[in-house]
Amino acid sequence: MSDQTTPQDPRTQHPGPEQPAERIEHPGPTGDMAQEPDHGESTYSGSGRLDGKRALITGGDSGIGRAVAIAFAREGADVAISYLPEEEQDARTTAHWVEDAGRKAVLLPGDIRDEGFCGQLVERAVAELGGLDVLVNNAAYQMAQPDGLRGITTEQLDRVLKTNVYAMFWITKAALDHLPRGGSIINTSSVQAFEPSPPLLDYATTKAAILNFTKGLAQQLAEEGIRVNAVAPGPIWTPLIPATMPGEKVEKFGADTPLGRPGQPAELAPAYVFFASQESSYMTGDRIGVTGGRLL
Length: 296
Fold this sequence. Notes:
By secondary structure, the protein is an alpha/beta fold. Helix 1 (63-74) crosses helix 8. It has eight helices and seven strands.
């Protein structure tokens, strides 16, 4: 069976943009998708690159977060994941795959829009894992608005900013006293930080903020031996897409990339593993784009 190292044609190794023009209820349980994503369940092969590491991943129940959790576990890391309580079923599936790799899985449900919970989240992860070496700020919220700025309510703006930016500040701040020299912080930005789509104006704004946060924090923490980097995905097939975009956009999602298809979460995981590992020891304040050829 092929794994993530097996040479393949990148245009055809995963399905093209022919997803059903579906719409599922947010937050979008993976099981509700007609075409479920590939998180690397049967394809990611580890090689001990994160042996003994302890990682906290926000939004680790599904999509990119699940793929990163699976990859980290197969590379030898114990993993704590945060998620909304209504995502419990997805979270338990992710935990199953972490434990299947012989690693510890810690489930931490709650709403990261609450500053108090963010502090508790880090403390509980540290207590359950026995420490913290890697923080992945991955959780995000978006909701496409065809009317652009006119359609973005204050309520939506508040939710997007608190989920994508405020929580990142709160969780990272709480984690600083626990991360050792050699520790790694990895933030999920987006191609939207460079190429904002009009219906995702608020979301794109937060993804640009995440990139700038990454660059600035990297300068602050360099003297402490803690590296801070970002992964900038392009169009990736996750539950967030049919849960937040109109059906006609879902059907052709990813078709506008040079590779002609959406990416799969499993194709993101190696970038996070790289930033978490010793192999990226001379990289901080940087970003890796995983965009199917769309230029950053």
